[in-house]
Amino acid sequence: MFRGSLITLIFDKTLHINSSAATNAETITLMSADIDRINSSMRLIHEIYAGLIEIAIALWLLYNLLGVAIMAPIIWVIGIIMFPFYASFPPSPITK
User: Fold this and answer.
1) CA-CA distance, 23 to 42, in Å (whole number)?
2) What are the tens digits of pLDDT across the range 13-58?
3) Alpha carbon distances (Å) from 33 to 30, 44, 45
4) How far apart are CA 13 and CA 41, in angstroms?
5) pTM higher than 0.85 for the full model?
6) Residue 83: what pLDDT?
7) Dist. CA 45–CA 43, nearest whole Å
8) Which residues, at least 6 apart from 15, have a Cβ–Cβ distance to it below 8 Å?
9) pLDDT digits (tens, 9 = 90+) for 49-88
10) What is the pLDDT of residue 58?
């Protein structure tokens, strides 16, 4: 539905462009590439906020089930996520 709406809007816009500005094949190719980029970006945006909501609900359910005991796994996961940042500092002068 989203893709069809975008195609209609962009194609309607291209009908108002001067015919010497672009050929029909160029217009269709550009329209397809733009729609694919917009579609993939929208999917990523939705996955980001949906993932945060999912994590919040999961933590709330675990807290209701286990209580404060969920803090240890949360701290462990945050530590594991942060480890690559500390491990990827530039090498010391000895290894150069």
Assistant:
1) 29
2) 767 766 665 556 666 666 777 777 887 788 888 888 999 999 999 9
3) 5, 17, 19
4) 21
5) no
6) 86
7) 6
8) none
9) 999 999 999 999 999 999 999 998 889 988 998 888 877 7
10) 92
DSSP assignment string, 12-53: HHHHTS-TTT--HHHHHHHHHHHHHHHHHHHHHHHHHHHHHH
In angstroms, the CA 90 to CA 39 distance is 37
Residue with tokens 């094949």: 25
Question: What single letter denotes the amino acid at residue 19?
Answer: S
Which two structure tokens, joined as six digits, stand for 55?
Answer: 């994590």
The one-letter amino acid at 46:
H
Paired tokens of 33 = 């590439």
